[in-house]
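anyone seen this seq b4? input:
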Amino acid sequence: MTDQPADPFDELISRALAKLPDEFRQQLESVAIVVDDDPTPEQLQSTHAHGLFGIYQGVPRTTYGASDAPYASKITLFRHPLEAFSTSEQDLAARVEDTLFHEIAHHLGISDARLREIAAQRRSAG
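predicted toks r here
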């Protein structure tokens, strides 16, 4: 068996997850977090997007019976788009964190519209 070098994205994901409060991390036990190089045409079509940094697939925690869903939820981060739009290692780390938190918000039942409202409130307060 050969030792493979650790995937730098795994470290970025671990660091981002460590920043989450415990009560949010505890709600991720049934969520697979994976890294793919690029989104599939089906993933792009399902979101009506031309490009994606990440995608949440599953049953949000706010849906009745989500804990009894027949399959685990999945968050996928897409390496190539994240790298292509990042200007530095720090920028990449921030994009991975932002994307992961965005997809976790979907798992917690927060819509894109509500996420935009929250972002607008943070910009106006800052």
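The radius of gyration is 15 Å. The first helix runs from residue 8 to 18. kinda curious what u guys think
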